[in-house]
Each structure stands twice: as structure tokens, then as C-alpha cells.
Amino acid sequence: MEGVESSIRMSLKTGDNDFDKIGTVGFQDEIATLPFSFVDLSSGFYNVDKRLIYPARPEFIEARISESREVAIRNPNRKFIFSGRVQMNGWNDLPPNMHPGFCRDIIANPKFLRETERGCLSHNKCHYYSRGEAHLTCGQWTPR
Q1: Which residues 6+ apart lie within 8 Å of 118 measured at CB?
Q2: Buried-most residue among 54, 116, 118, 130 (CB within 10 A)?
Q3: pTM
Q4: Distance between CA 126 and CA 48 in Å, rounded?
Q5: Taking Cα atoms as reference points, which of 130, 32, 120 lies closest to residue 81?
Q6: HEC string for the chain
Q7: Nearest to 105 by CA among 97, 96, 115, 95
Q8: Which residues, in sequence order, are CB contacts of 101 under 8 Å at separation 6+?
Q9: What whole-number distance in Å separates Cα of residue 16 and Cα of residue 28?
Q10: pLDDT of 130 strictly over 90
């Protein structure tokens, strides 16, 4: 995308239940005012080994997409990316400032935009840094 200079990643939840109940909206909107080209919205959670885990159950995915929409609607002058187990369906009703992140799908299949049925299969090899590797690999085309 042209004009992308920088981005900041923000988890929609902090993990502190009390804060998430009362402070989430203000926190999200404050982050959205920072001078970055994009705000990358995530609900990823890290375990002790710093491996990113996205909740895979459909109700969690739908709730995360819904909450991402709400953030984008509240901040119409900011561009957002939502990532993590995002499916191609339902993109027609996204706010105009909300963009799906599908980098892993393109890593797994450079023709992903034409062949959307074959993208990332969640091999998670692309999390190279947290796995102590020096470079990006993909579980679909890199020998295990």
C-alpha cells in the first residue's frame, strides 16, 4: 500500500479483566491518536515462550472482528489493520478505514488474492523471531 511509513500494533484486550471492562475504549482511542500510518489491531495472546496464540473458536473470531469494527468506526480518520485468523468472508461490510491483514496467507501462497482457498494453514513457522530463528520461513513450503 502506498504511503505506509509506520504502524503500531495494539491488542484489543490487555489481559487485566478490570481494566478491560472500564478502560479499553479510552485506551484504544488514545493509541489511535498516535502518529502512525496504521494501527494494527490484534487480540493475540502471548504465552510464556512468547509464542503468539490467536483464539480459533468462531465466536472469539467474530467478537474480535466486531470489536475491531467498533474501534475503526469510532476513529474514522485513522487506518486500521485487523489480523489473526481472518477469513475472506464478511469483508464487504468493513468500514472504509479497516483493512484485513493477510500477510501470512501471501507468504504461504503468493497467488492468494486469486486463490483464496489456499493460504496460511497455521503452521506458525513465520513467527521466526519468537522461535529464535534468523529469518522467515513458511511451514507450507519449508521442510519441517
Answers
A1: 108, 109, 112
A2: 54
A3: 0.72
A4: 18
A5: 32
A6: CCCCCCEEEEECCCCCHHHHHHCHHHHHHHHCCCCCCEEEEECCEECCCCCEECCCCHHHHHHHHHHHHHHHHHCCCCEEEECCCCCCCCHHHCCCCEEECCHHHHHHCCCCCCCCCCCCCCCCCCCCCCCCCCCCCCCCCCCC
A7: 115
A8: 40, 81, 82, 83, 84, 86
A9: 14
A10: no
**pLDDT attached to residue 1:** 47
What confidence tens digit (pLDDT) does each residue in 17-74 have? 888 889 989 999 999 999 998 998 887 655 555 555 555 677 777 788 888 899 999 9
Q: Please provide residue 6's backbone torsions phi and psi, each rounded to the nearest 5 degrees.
A: -160, 165
One-letter amino acid at 36 equals F
Amino acid at 6: S
